[in-house]
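Recap for those who missed Tuesday's class. We walked through two folding examples back to back. For each one, the amino acid string is listed first and its predicted structure tokens come directly after. Nothing is annotated here on purpose, so try labeling regions yourself before you check the end of the notes.
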Amino acid sequence: MASPVGMFSVQYDRSVYRCVVWLGQCLRRFWNVHVLGFFGKQEEEQIPPGKNIFHKEKIRVLGETLKNKLLTIEERAQAAHQLGLLAFTGGPVAGRFAAEHMKEVALLLQDAQAAPKARVLLLQSVACWCYLNPITQKRAKFLKLVPILTAMLKPDPEPAAGGSASGGLLVKFWACYTLSVMTCNNVSYVEELREYYPLKHHLQALARENWEGWPENFAEVLYFLIGFHRH
């Protein structure tokens, strides 16, 4: 029986241009409906159009919160999420200022104490920063976010008795989505991800999971975008 990845690759084996157009539309639709619709309404309403100075000040305050190690990881992750929303809704200027705090997000993503909910907020912030933004994508690459995110896709050990793996699976789903955002218009990411040979098998396993509630199976999207279906 053909694998889901194999069927996906046959269906979407089109030109690179069509792939980027389709994926860009898909990513934007998902972000507007599933992220901004639930998390970003308040932030969007508070941002007057064209007020870049206001953006800068709010980003500065949130950046201080993000760096404050006296706060919980969850509080710092929430600040990172709000920074990402400002970067997404505020345009290139806001995105540039917000990206200066990406290093703290990279460190928190590697913190073993971070709960799945906090990791999801951090991943959403990275997706906001990197969406169709080559400047912040370049900074994310410099901060080694690719190996950080691909490490999240490795199979987890069996949960302890009475435990649940759902939180960890949600993190993997968001890592796939974030990597798709970073990769859809950036050849350097594609080339780097092809060097992670176990990634092909990790994505095949994740593609078989239940992606109900998501507009696309982003493990399959990323698998095709990297070009694993051709090898």
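Example two. Treat it independently of the first, because the proteins are unrelated.
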Amino acid sequence: MSYLGVGVSPGNVPVYHGSNLKSIDRIVRLAELVLRCLICGLAILTSVLVATDTQVKEIFTIRKTAKFTNMKALVFLVATNGLVAAYSLAQVLRCVMSMFKGIVLLNKPLAWAIFSGDQVMAYLTVAAVGAAAQSAVFAKFGQTQLEWMQICNMYGKFCNQVGEGIASGLLVSLSMVVLSAISGFSLFRLYGHNKTKSVVRW
């Protein structure tokens, strides 16, 4: 039986026969793959920029070294982006394997797992960037009420590289939010005419 280009067979979710629906599905899958690759690369870049950032300053013959471990927010940013990079790499491999096989597994438990993982990573990246950005503002402008110094006046190079890392981390968090919407679309479209798993071949 078919209606508006969608065929429904017993025990299966809708199987697309219309070329428009197939092309839309391919675009969504390709967008997901591109976003996951982008997130993986940017997350690695963020971790490397922040983790390798150091600057040595001599103050009255005393050598002081600025590094990311001096600020817990930056440690959180590095750890979060490392986790996101590993997660994204695993998801990229899954996407590539499904594309090579020419199938998309429309399995609810798997779709829920992917959606939940994307949600967790999105929240983590947003929280990490927010915390790092707040610390960066204090380092840049100080806090006169608490007598906190403007650290960036002494460690300009360190602050500039941290700023680049935070900007890269912001792109990661925004991309994760978009990706969460895509995985949400892939999940909730399974709750259509039928409610069991199926395999759709491209």
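Answers for example two:
Confidence is low (pLDDT under 50) at residues 1-18, 194-202.
The two ends are 20 Å apart (CA to CA).
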